[in-house]
Each structure stands twice: as structure tokens, then as C-alpha cells.
Amino acid sequence: MPFRNPLLPEHFLAWAEPPDEGGDELLRIVSWRRALTLKGHSFREFSREVVPLLDGRTGIDRICDEVADIFAREDLEAALEMLGGQGVVVEGGGADAAALPAGLQPQLAWLSEAAPEGRAAQRHLTAARVVLFGGGGPGAAAARGLAAAGIGELLIVDPAEVGASDSYFSPLFRPGDAGSLRAEALADALAELAPDCRIRTRTTRPDSPQDIAALIEGAAMVLCCLDAGELNLALKLNRACRDLGMRWLAGGMEGLDLVVGPGFSGDPDAACYMCWRMREVACAANPQARFALERHLDRLRRDLSARRENLAMGADIVGGMMAAEAVAVLTGAGEPALDGRFLVVELPGLRQEKHGVLRKPGCPVCGGTAR
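The line above is the sequence of UBA/THIF-type NAD/FAD binding protein; the predicted C-alpha cells follow.
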């Protein structure tokens, strides 16, 4: 089918080279991932007159009229169809393309290379509702990434107040925010950066898995960036997501280690977050001491990130990777990389390891046996 509004995405560079000794010209269309070289005639005219019109908004009829004195319509449509077959010319959005922020062009270019739907996959992000638990360092970085990516709606669940270290972990928090509700301070900062994103907050602690289920029901995905001191809330989130079959992804800064994952697909036969925590205890150098720590964290119910050994850069790494995984999954640009797995990045050293999560026999949440 002929293009209606042909688009040569901006990440492609296109230019014509002068004729060789035989009179043939070269047309080069190049991006970081691909290179197309064509040999023939009239490429200088094509590059000068046609390429500027391939903006995704100009209709094919107008393009053909504009260059009718140079190219016959059937020849131009055949050339565009050939370029479309090579994946360098795609269908644009017509007048609707102007509705997207100009700053999204790098992301649209990435989608055109990575997602099966190409640039059209952006609509999945625009329609998506994501719930974020924990607005501290990693959560703030993830929220910024999601808002910048054009997520339609973001709910931030965080009962904590802005502490002195929050502005260290994220520039979204200002020193004057200290003492205010962290979710609201983060929402205000994000509203300036991404005014098209609908941002809501929940600043009281959910009392039960049922309360959490009411918050996350209908969401496309849940991200959990809660500090270890909020283990009790993370465990309630696990039960709620398990009951709803909800996709969610955890992550955090664990001392000298950065942990991205585990991810959970909502599959009732897969391991759950409790399975992971129980196995972490069992595999610890001193399981009894680790179990005592888990029980203590379960009772604390408050954010400890200001008291733990962390780096500001670690928050950006964890939150950024979680947001990138969410964008890839929601747009179909990649298979979930962390379902049933978690990535550990060591600081210092940047050594990375990926581990699987197995079901734990006797798990009080999922039972630990496949159905």
C-alpha cells in the first residue's frame, strides 16, 4: 500500500554523492544501526527536493505535486516503497505527529529501530498507567524516566517525607522540600518536566494487600523502589500483585550492591517476592543474623536510605534501568529481561551478575509448588 505521509526518521542521515566516471550517483542513508547505499541517477535531486518533504506530516499527494517536474508519480511511489521495504521510510503520523513533544524524537527513533510496531509503539506508553512504590533515589530516577518517556499516568505511592539526603540522591528534590511529603514534592518536579503526564500521589501508608490492590488494579505495570526499611509494605505489595496477576518489578540499593529486579510476570506458577527474600536469607553467610535483620526490617516500616551506605549514582543506575525495562516491556521493544531474575551491579568495580529466582517450598504467599 502506498505511503500516505511518508517519513524518513530524523536519526537517518541522507546525502547524495557526485557522479562517478560512469555517470552514476550514490545515495547514502545511514544510521548507527544500518547503512543503505544506492547507485543510480537523479539522487542529488531526490536528496535536495524529496527528502526534506519526508517529514511524516506532508501527504504523498502534495509531495508528488511539489516534484512533478522532476519525478513521475509512479517512479516516486516505487522509490519510496523500496525504501520502506528497507525500513528507512515509514508511515508518519500526519497532522497527529505534531501532538507529540519535539523532545521525544530520540525515543521515537529508538522505537523505530527496536519495537516491532516502530514509532507507533509510543501509543502504548501514552495509554499506560504505571504505579510506583517508593519515591526516594531510585524511585525518583525511575519516575523521571517514565515521565520523560511519555507515560500516560503515573501514581506515586510513598508515605515518607523529604529528608536531607533526598536532594543528594536526586536533583528533583530541592533543599527547601525537606519536611514536605516526598510523593508530592516529586510530583511537582515531574509536572514541570513532563506536563502531559498525569501524575497522582498516595501519601498515606496502605494498610493491607487489599488496599494496595485497589491502587494498582488496571495498571499496566508496577515498579517497587521501596527502601529495605519498608519491607513490610513491599511484602504486602507482593501479595496484592500475586492476587491480581499483576506484572511488577523491584529494585533497590543494597549497600555496595545495586539490585535491579526481580521481575514478576504475574504467572501463578512462578516464584514470588517472598520466595526471593526467603532464599536470600537461606543463602546468606549467616542465615540466622540475616533472618533477624529481615524480622527487624519488617517491623520498622520507615525509609532508611539516609542512613545506609549508598551513592547518588547508584540511584540513577537502578532507577534508570528499571524505567528502561518498563519502556521495553510496555512497547514490545524487547522480551522482559528480568522476569524471575535479578541483576546485581557491584560498586565499586561495576561487576554484573544475573541470577534466577526459584520458588521456595513452603512459601506462605505462593505455596512454593507449581499448580
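Note on the example: The two ends are 48 Å apart (CA to CA). The CA atoms of residues 162 and 178 lie 5 Å apart.
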